[in-house]
Amino acid sequence: MKNQMSCDTLRAGGFWWRRREFVCMMRIAVVENEEIYVEELVEFIRTWERENDLKEKCEVRSFKSGETFLEDDIDSYSAVFMDIQLDGTLDGMNVARQIRRRGGTQMIFFLTAYDNYVLDGYDVDASGYLLKPVEYEKIEKCMNKVLQRTRKRYFEHVSKGKRCLIPYDDILYFQSSLHYIEIKTLD
C-alpha cells in the first residue's frame, strides 16, 4: 500500500509529518467479469464506508480477468473479491494460487455461484467464500475483517480526527525535532 498524503513536504527515502492531514486508504480489487456484480459490490463497499464514517475512502479497482489483475501491483491490495469463473485462461482459484506463490498475504474472498469450489479455498487460505447473489451483510462482515487486519499491519496515527496508516514494514525509524516528527520509510 503506497502512502497517499496531502502533506506538501516530501523527502526522498521518507516523508515529513507537519501537522497536516494524511489521506490513506485501503485498496480493494474486484476480479469479476460480470459488470452487474462489480457495480453491486462497489456500492456495498461505499455503503460500508458511509456507515462506518471512514475519513478515508477505499480505492476499488475492477478487473475482468485474472491475467489483467496479475499484471497490476497485486501486493498493494488489502483484499481481493474474486469470482471463480473469469474471462481469460485463468480461473479465480488459479489466480489465488499465483497470488500466494508470489508471497501475497492479502485477504481473498471468493464470490461465485458455485459451491463446489469451497474446499479448494482452504488451499489458498481464502478469507471467505460468498455465494451469489451476495447480500450487503456478508460484504459488511468481510470489510470489517479487512479493516481489522489492516489496522494490525500498519502504524496508525490519528490527528484532528484523521487517521493515517503506514505499513510497519516500510518504517525505518522515527525522529523528533522541535514540534515535528519525521517518519523515515523505505520509499
Q: How would you sum up this structure, described in words?
A:
The chain has 187 residues and is of the alpha/beta class. Helix content is 29%, strand content 30%. The protein is built from five helices and eleven strands. The strands form three sheets. Strands 4-3-5-6-7 form a five-stranded parallel β-sheet. Strands 1-2-11-10 form a four-stranded antiparallel β-sheet, with no helix packed on it. Strand 10 (171-177) and strand 11 form a beta hairpin. Helix 1 packs across helix 5 (136-153). The longest helix has 18 residues, at 136-153. The protein is globular. The model is unreliable at 1-24 (pLDDT under 50).
Query: What's the assembly state of these chains?
Result: single chain
Order of helices and strands: EEEHEHEHEHEHEEEE
Sheet with most strands: 5 strands, parallel
Look at the structure and give the mean pLDDT: 81
Q: Distance N terminus to C terminus?
A: 11 Å
Q: Specify the structural class.
A: alpha/beta
Q: Which residues sit in consecutive blocks of at least 5 with pLDDT less than 50? A: 1-24
Output the radius of gyration. 18 Å
Helix content estimate: 25-40%
Number of strand elements:
11
Beta-strand share of residues: 25-35%
Major sheet: order of its strands? 4-3-5-6-7
Can you count the helices? 5
The coarse overall form would be globular
